[in-house]
Amino acid sequence: MFNHYKEAANAQAQSGIKSADPLTQPLEQARQQQEQYFQTLNQDLPEVAKIEDRLIAGPSGEIPIRLVYPQTKEPTRYLIFIRGAGFWAGSLDSHARTMRTLALESGCVVCGIDYRRAPDFHFPVQRNEVIAVLEYLKSQQMSLGIHGKPVLFGESAGATIALSAAQALRDQNNDALAGLILFYNNAGGFKPEAREYSQWVWQQYLGPDTPLDDAQATPLLGSVTGLPPIWQGVGADDPLITDTNKLAHQLKAIGIDPQVKTFPNLPHGFLMWTGSLQPALDALRESVQVMKGFFTAE
User: Fold this and answer.
1) Residue span of the structural domain in which 186 resides
2) Alpha/beta hydrolase fold-3 domain: which residues (predicted)?
């Protein structure tokens, strides 16, 4: 287990598989390469008690979900994990380590969602699929061995989708969540000054019919009042740290403790490295303790 990101990254680079670039590769080729890259971070996965894959009905067709059980004791609290990968990549397998580690560290059932990817599908499809999964789990708690209100746990693009879903639920007067754990969100939306990849990501997510300043699609342009408790984690070396800080400022402005932790020397996407980078594992464990507090306070 490495204590510094550069050491862990150098060791991973020996695999010879690099992160994909959808701006210079055909999209499907980039997705395949990105999946191979993710799998280099998913070696020697920790054992869990049970994994169950299901297909559930959703607003745009069936939604694949994966339930990760850390132990057989039930009923158990649960969380919904929403992956990042820029809205365009990733799968139920790409973040296998994160989901398993979350389950083992928290003692909760983790439900991962294989939401539809951009640009094949645009906002609000992804947000609405999260809400559909939330409703499904609530209706099936007894048969699934889970209970209570869940936490939405999102990282990167997944954190943005989680925040957007929480705002939509609030607008429906639906008090369905115990809280939000958001790692390095990109919820500030399209930025003309951002690097080309970041601009591309948001253009693909929004599609041609959603304005760049749409407040429902871009959570930090909307209201943050009336939301469940929020905790944020971000690396000090993350180029998207401004979005985390902006949400913190917005919460503070309305009298809410922003609950944000900046982790030194960590880049964007560091949760993927919990198998080889001790500070990443420590950050995940810290978020788990906060999540347990959300459950206790419910």
Assistant:
1) 5-297
2) 79-271
**pLDDT given for residue 257 in this prediction:** 95
Selection from 158, 43, 8, 151 nearest residue 90 by Cα: 158
Q: Report pLDDT for 129.
A: 98
Average pLDDT (30-35) is: 98
Which helix (DSSP H) or strand (DSSP E) does residue 129 occupy? helix 125-139
Rounded to two decimals, what is the model's pTM?
0.98
Q: Residues 257-297: pLDDT tens digits? A: 999 999 999 999 999 999 999 999 999 999 999 999 999 98
The angle formed by the CA atoms of residues 82, 86 and 87, to the nearest 5 degrees, is 60
HSE-up (13 A, CA, CB side) for residue 241: 16
Q: For the stretch 31-69, what's the b/e string if a residue is b when 16 or more beta carbons lie within 10 angstroms of its beta carbon? A: bebbbebbebbbeeeeebeebeeeebebeeeebebbbbb
For residue range 54-92, list pLDDT tens digits in order. 999 999 999 999 999 998 888 899 999 999 999 999 999
Could you tell me the CATH number of the domain that includes residue 121?
Answer: 3.40.50.1820
What is d(CA 65, CA 110) in angstroms, rounded to the nearest whole number?
A: 10
CA atoms lying within 13 Å on the CB side of residue 48: 24
Bridge partners of 109, per DSSP, are: 78
In contact, 219 and 250? CB cutoff 8 Å: no
Number of structural domains in the chain: 1
